Amino acid sequence: MAVTAVVAVISGIVGLCVGSFLNVVIHRVPRRESVVRPRSHCPRCDTQIDERDNIPVISWVALRGRCRTCRARIPVRYPLVEAATAGLFVAAAVRLGANWDLPAFCVFFASLLAVSVIDLDHFIIPNRIIYPTLVVLGPLLVLAAGLDGRWRPLLDAGIGGAAAFAALFMVHFISPRGMGFGDVRLAGVIGVMLGWLGLRYVPLGLFLAFFLASVVGVGLMVTRLRSRKDAVPFGPFMACGAVVAVLWGHPLLKLYLGSRA
Ligand SMILES: [Zn+2]
Prior knowledge:
By secondary structure, the protein is mostly helical. It is built from 9 helices and no strands. Helix 1 runs parallel beside helix 4, helix 5 runs parallel beside helix 7 and helix 7 crosses helix 8. The longest helix has 27 residues. The chain is globular and about 60 Å long. The structure holds zinc ion. Zinc ion binds next to loops.
């Protein structure tokens, strides 16, 4: 318990820094810019952001959400993304404890957050996020399996990834306009990570995605914020479904399957 608390605190601090990087990713990847160079600039006055003004969440609060030089507003989304990343990392640490697969799930959550915000903004799920995520997750999971001496989760991760990819590919095939190929690739990543936890988590995560999308879709139509014809990106729903499945999948499956879970 004490170990988990320490790991959770460390994860939270790492999450704040990763969240700061995700802001760069969210801004630059859809514009096809490098996420490494140049260093961050104020979009209005072009002043390079000082080291002391680049502390996650704290700097934004200290500067009251304005650029130090030109006083331009810095959107509240920046500290929110940082806080959300930290929150997701802490939740992953509490759920998984001090285990070798924790780094993989932190990378997974960070990637889901970036993909969701970009999909909401631009209606795309960039390969420039999906592929690097897979390249990082693969070795992390192999390493975790090796260190634990348990290879079954790795096999299930492969099966889960293939199954989720195939399932959404069918939906894409039937309705290419409703389900983009970016969604299909994202489903593959989600299937890998949920499969690692156990194969029954894969259908749960996908079910939650479709369930959340229908609830929100009906809600938007009833409140007339969106009509039936307006596109609503599916990526954020898949991301939410996956996060819920990771964090609360065990009690949810128990509820559904009873003593068989
Ligand atoms: Zn400025």
